[in-house]
User: What shape does this take?
Amino acid sequence: MRNTIVRSMLVPALCASSVVMTTRAVADEWPLVAGDFWEITGVHVKDGGGLAYATFLASEWRDNQEFAKSKGWIKSYMLLGNSYPRKGEPDLYLISVSDRLASGPEGEKRSDEYMAWRKKTVAQMQKESGDRADVRELGSNLLLQELTFRK
Assistant: This one.
């Protein structure tokens, strides 16, 4: 019985150590390095909603991004317009770039800081988001990680 328990613990330990050694070797040989995270939201602007949504982006959305940047939560942000959207493709891409993702507790802390800064309730923000549904529809959400070449 004891040999069975020892064997059942020893086999996974040996497998794990071989994975660590393999991973380290691959990391030294792998030609790409993981970099920043790009969070991308695709937005479909509804007919007649362009000015209203652009006004929101130029005011509140930009203020939110600048706050996140001032706290070090993001490195940069940008808007990209899709000049020739094919059927079903977003008109706009809202992008935030960060060097890492927040952990659960860190995300909670950020949320508390943001709510204190924004001075709005969750209910107010949910209503405002719903009101923007008249001028835009959120489409795809992507989380991409930049890959750079190892030197």
Summary: The mean pLDDT is 88.
